[in-house]
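Per your request, structure below.
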């Protein structure tokens, strides 16, 4: 790590939320919530978007994985949070929400040499894509976040959930194959890799390979999962995702599959819209109630 970045992370870690806190006028059953930016001193230091109850605890942890940015400029200027309203929904239901930022400020000057390069690794050539490696990279990051938050004493050990969208959802599926004892349930929205090759809708990089790798994760995955998709997802459409789910279940994985009606112009971004919450929240509430 470059010296000035090392000092930056140490200062932020020491000062914690004091400098970067933005109080949110929101309540969950009388509990005030707080919206913050944290510096996590994990093996690969990273920033994270956090929404948490102000007092009490410890609380269960919700780790939220954002999607994939392929272009260098997209990675360098990636938003701090892609699904703020969804994060607040989980916080209102009693979770400390931590969304690690895999891209952004630490990679602005030299995107391919940024500290987060491991986690925005591409899948390579579509003739033989590496879907497995990038998924497991995000799984590694998730475990780091969980270990860090448990060490802070703010969250309940063994009660974490992981929520992921798109490539972040694929990372959550990969994480399930490791069966971490720290995680009780996993929820994915529009999960997959290799979607919209050359910017074309419904043009996956290597659909058969994606299904094959999904089955490979399912062979060792035993954590309860909920997979949510929308009919008009232009990255991972109904036919492909049903094949993925069937392969995962046949291999031994545990996942509920739900296909929602078309949402706005592209259902791939369902979790990023406040209007999507009434559609997915009943499914998520029922699922989590069944896996306490």
């Amino acid at each position: 790590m470059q010296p000035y970045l090392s000092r930056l992370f140490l200062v932020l870690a020491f000062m914690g939320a004091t400098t970067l806190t933005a109080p949110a006028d929101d309540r969950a059953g009388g509990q005030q919530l707080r919206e913050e930016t944290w510096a996590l001193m994990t093996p690969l230091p990273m920033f994270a978007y956090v929404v948490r109850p102000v007092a009490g605890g410890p609380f269960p942890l919700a780790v939220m994985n954002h999607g994939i940015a392929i272009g260098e400029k997209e990675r360098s200027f990636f938003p701090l949070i892609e699904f703020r309203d969804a994060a607040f929904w989980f916080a209102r239901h009693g979770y400390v929400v931590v969304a690690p930022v895999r891209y952004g400020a630490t990679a602005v000057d030299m995107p391919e040499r940024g500290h987060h390069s491991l986690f925005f690794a591409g899948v390579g050539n579509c003739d033989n894509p590496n879907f497995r490696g990038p998924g497991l990279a995000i799984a590694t990051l998730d475990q780091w976040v969980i270990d860090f938050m448990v060490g802070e004493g703010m969250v309940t050990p063994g009660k974490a959930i992981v929520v992921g969208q798109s490539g972040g959802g694929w990372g959550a599926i990969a994480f399930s194959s490791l069966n971490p004892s720290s995680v009780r349930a996993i929820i994915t929205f529009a999960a997959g890799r290799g979607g919209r090759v050359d910017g074309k809708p419904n043009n996956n990089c290597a659909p058969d390979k994606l299904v094959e790798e999904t089955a490979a994760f399912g062979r060792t995955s035993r954590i309860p999962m909920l997979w949510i998709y929308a009919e008009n997802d232009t990255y991972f459409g109904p036919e492909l995702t049903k094949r993925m789910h069937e392969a995962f279940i046949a291999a031994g994985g545990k996942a509920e599959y739900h296909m929602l009606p078309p949402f706005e112009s592209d259902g791939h971004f369902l979790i990023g819209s406040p209007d999507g919450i009434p559609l997915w929240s009943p499914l998520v509430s029922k699922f989590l109630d069944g896996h306490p």
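The longest helix spans residues 132-151.

Regards,
D.
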